[in-house]
Design goal:
Blueprint lengths: L1 H22 L6 H23 L3 H32 L3 H26 L5 H32 L9 E5 L3 E2 L2 E2 L1 H19 L5 E5 L10 H11 L7 E4 L5 H14 L7 E7 L3 H10 L3 E7 L6 H15 L1 H24 L9
Parallel strand pairs: 1-4, 1-6, 4-5, 6-7
Antiparallel strand pairs: 2-3
């Protein structure tokens, strides 16, 4: 009965996730739906494996998750060393090794919480359980976001855009950076493919004047496209935005002033690590849009994805605060209850 329930639940969630991907793939939460489906199906397979190949199947099931976390943590630490050597030490390059250390610590915290209970002090055990559960909550969201971002990037391109929008990502000495150049080059590819297919979209370059800068990103980007042979009349320069949400909102306003309908079809070009969050923002703003990504240097992808994940967590902070607060409250409630019982934690075992 248990295995059938797990299989049915996983299949239903997988079907629901597939329908969302087909009809509206810009929901970030679809990643969590698919992750839950995968988790239920994995549990079903684990139960079957454990029953058929006991005890080796059980040992494999117990060992595989912590080993995977340790390997992922070591990989992020190694990536942090590579990124720091190439980009220098700053907050963005420190993200990957910090997360790597957290992944290394998570299985040990979980093992300590399980191994020490019920003999360790109640509050020490409660702290370990809280750290473990919050870590697992963030890890599940990170896996869902990363896997679904990769899946979204593989979806087929829908041609027929009325506008191709390129998002800025900063200038150096008033000039286009290598990262921004990859976005512009990808936009040129998309634009030329649209023209070859018989469409005549405009190219919108979006980016304002950064703090302490004198040149708007849109102007540097527009000059780059003109140098590549694009007719200046086909380029719209949006010079007010300072972040992704403003990129999209001010771009929509620029298009509206030029007579584009509210349901104009838009292709937004950004970096591959930025595609999922950009697509989600276009949905929230009611735009008929799709996002495509330009390739990022492979060594920088982990740090970039982690930075994007942090931005997604911040944009959904209320939900995360409620979920995390509920977990903490439940654990603390159990700890208080156990501390009031004569035998401490043994009373709830």
């Amino acid at each position: 009965m248990v295995t059938q329930t797990l299989l049915l639940g996983g299949a239903v969630l997988a079907l629901f996730g597939a329908v969302r991907v087909l009809y509206e793939p810009r929901h970030i939460s679809t990643g969590l739906v698919l992750l839950c489906a995968l988790g239920l199906l994995a549990l079903w397979a684990a139960v079957e494996l454990g029953a058929r190949w006991y005890p080796w199947g059980v040992i494999l099931i117990l060992v595989l998750p912590p080993v995977s976390l340790v390997l992922a943590g070591l990989g992020l630490l190694a990536n942090g060393v590579i990124v720091t050597r190439r980009e220098g030490l700053r907050i963005s390059t420190a993200v990957a090794p910090v997360v790597g250390l957290a992944l290394l610590a998570l299985p040990f915290a979980a093992i300590w919480a399980v191994g020490a209970w019920p003999h360790a002090p109640i509050w020490a055990t409660a702290t370990a359980v809280i750290v473990t559960l919050l870590g697992l909550l963030l890890l599940a969201q990170l896996l869902a976001f990363t896997v679904y971002a990769i899946l979204y990037a593989q979806l087929p391109y829908r041609s027929g855009a009325d506008a191709v929008v390129v998002l800025g990502c900063g200038l150096v000495n008033g000039r286009v950076t290598p990262l921004l150049a990859t976005r512009l080059d990808r936009a040129l590819e998309v634009y030329r493919e649209e023209v070859a297919a018989g469409a005549f979209p405009v190219l919108v370059v979006s980016g304002g004047v950064g703090r302490g800068k004198k040149v708007a990103e849109a102007d540097a980007m527009g000059d780059y496209l003109e140098a590549a042979g694009i007719d200046p009349a086909m380029i719209i320069r949006e010079r007010r935005s300072g972040n992704t949400e403003e990129n999209l909102r001010f771009t929509a306003a620029e298009l509206a002033t030029r007579g584009f309908a509210d349901d104009a079809r838009i292709t937004v070009v950004t970096s591959d690590f930025h595609v999922m969050r950009t697509a989600a923002l276009t949905r929230r703003q009611g735009m008929d849009a799709q996002a495509v990504g330009a390739r990022t240097a492979r060594y920088f992808v982990p740090a970039a994805f982690l930075r994007e994940f942090a931005a997604v967590i911040d944009s959904h902070r209320r939900v995360n605060l409620v979920a995390g607060g509920t977990l903490v409250a439940v654990v603390l409630g159990l700890a208080v209850y156990a501390s009031c019982m004569p035998n401490g934690l043994e009373a709830v075992s």
